[in-house]
Design a protein that fits this description.
247 residues, 72% helix
Length: 247
């Protein structure tokens, strides 16, 4: 019982350090706040404004159909009012979320010290600090891509294969932010190949049924999200591949 209590206390101390890093990161990003800079961000802001007025247009150009960028901004417009801060709150929160994910990935693969170091380095990374309050999709898409990797690692280290499905869901959400999210797919393809041939990967190898296999789980989640999106596009625009058409 004493040993378990000591472990819980150490874990609590580590979490406290993470909280300090997050507070520092949040303050640093607010100090270098950018907000509206009259570039591509105008499209996201105008689209979010149209959403809360019920005038959303699925036939608009590509920036306007990056739904996991525009709808969160519209949500914050709705609850906080229209301002530079509410417009930049979505990338700011996902930037903080990425720091949390960096901590847990580092902790999962190595140890808690690596996790804390990863979180701290990302908290002061200049590009992340600058883009955290810039109304562009780069930080939100990075958040969902990182979340996908972390959920996949949870599936590898645990017994719940649902994490693979959730990992694919995160990829699908990243796609709804920006199609750049597909750059994460080579990571999973390479991992599947290496894991299949067993090139020294130390994972919890276990026999699973075809329905539980990780590649099926991830792919199924992505396909479901894209299929539902294609149905929405087909209903409103008559084009199932409307997002690709707008490119």
């Amino acid at each position: 019982m004493k040993i378990e209590g000591i472990k819980k206390l150490k874990n609590l101390n580590h979490e406290i350090w993470l909280v300090f890093i997050l507070v520092f990161a949040f303050a640093l990003r607010l100090n270098f706040f950018i907000g509206l800079n009259l570039n591509d961000d105008l499209t996201y802001v105008n689209t979010a404004h149209d959403i809360i007025r019920g005038k959303f247009n699925f036939n608009a150009w590509i920036f306007a159909v990056r739904h996991m960028m525009n709808f969160p901004i519209a949500f914050f417009f709705f609850i906080l009012g229209i301002s530079d801060f509410s417009a930049a709150l979505w990338p700011l929160l996902t930037s903080i979320g990425s720091i949390v994910i960096a901590y847990y990935i580092g902790k999962k693969i190595f140890d808690v010290k690596v996790g804390l170091l990863s979180a701290f380095l990302l908290s002061i990374f200049p590009v992340d600090v600058a883009y955290a309050t810039t109304i562009v999709p780069d930080i939100p898409v990075a958040f969902f891509m990182g979340l996908s990797v972390y959920l996949f690692l949870l599936g590898e280290k645990g017994k719940n294969t649902m994490y693979y499905f959730l990992s694919g869901t995160a990829i699908g959400l990243a796609w709804l932010v920006k199609s750049l999210a597909l750059l994460i797919l080579p990571f999973f393809v390479a991992y599947f190949i290496l894991d299949k041939v067993g090139l020294g990967l130390k994972t919890t190898r276990r026999k699973v049924s075809p329905k539980e296999y990780k590649s099926v789980q991830c792919l199924a989640a992505v396909v479901i999200i894209l299929f539902l999106l294609s149905l929405i596009y087909a209903f409103y625009t008559g084009r199932q591949l409307n997002q690709l058409h707008l490119y």
